[in-house]
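Running this now, will post back.
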Amino acid sequence: MESGINLFAGEEKLMCAKIEDFNKAVYQKMVQIYESNLKNNLDVTEINTYKIVVEKEAIKQQQIDDIEAFKNYCSEYLEYYWIEFSIKDKEYKISMYYKDFDFSTGNIHVLPGAIQIWKKVCCSKDSIHSSALRCKNNEIRPFIEKGWEPILRKPLFWKTENSIDIWGIINEGNIDYPNIYSNQFYERVRECLYQNIRFTYPGRGHGHYRNYSLYKWSQGENIVEVPYRFLEDERNGWFIIFGKNMLTKYQTKGEQINEFVNGGWIIKYKQAVQI
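Update: finished.
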């Protein structure tokens, strides 16, 4: 064997390519939705496209003026993309991510790449504001965040060939559409994200294949270890960063990380991070 050869260089390059390919596919799907639903619609005004880039644990936003010209896809993290637009006096958002909240555990889930449609509403007691999250029912469901109310009640994991009727979703709400499960949707990227992860604690779990197959964790005494990181963006709320070398420990003190107080959930991911 020749000395000086990095045996993992090819594997690392392949991992980066899979992450970049996932981000590219998600962004191109957003472009497809834009072109088929929004581009030539005279009633649509104020098209704004955003992406979130994670760099040194800080969320940075970039507004993109030309949706069809964007070519800079990250190879280190799964990125988040969305479009905000107005129809007359109503504001909407198409996000290439889906968020929901598990009332029984107090955990926020963010599913990169899965589609959600939002409409702008006035902030209410059922919104995330400051660090408080309030839910009406003891279940897993999407939630209002930063004044945006979700329309879909389940994540839309798509195939490239699927066409998506945005106007049908906006006008009819939770409609039937071609769908797949998360284990199929994240199959290639999940493998490359987690193949080199080495958990500290023996008790391990993973999310349900239907929606949460991207999630893994390891449970120790008063500690939960996860291969991703929770980050809060002041304007757009909570995101979960899935990327290489993101193994993070959260202190639970024998209880849930987040806390239910006075009818609302207090989100404490930041305070719980063990440095």
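Residues 43 and 87 are 6 Å apart (CA to CA). More later if anyone needs it.
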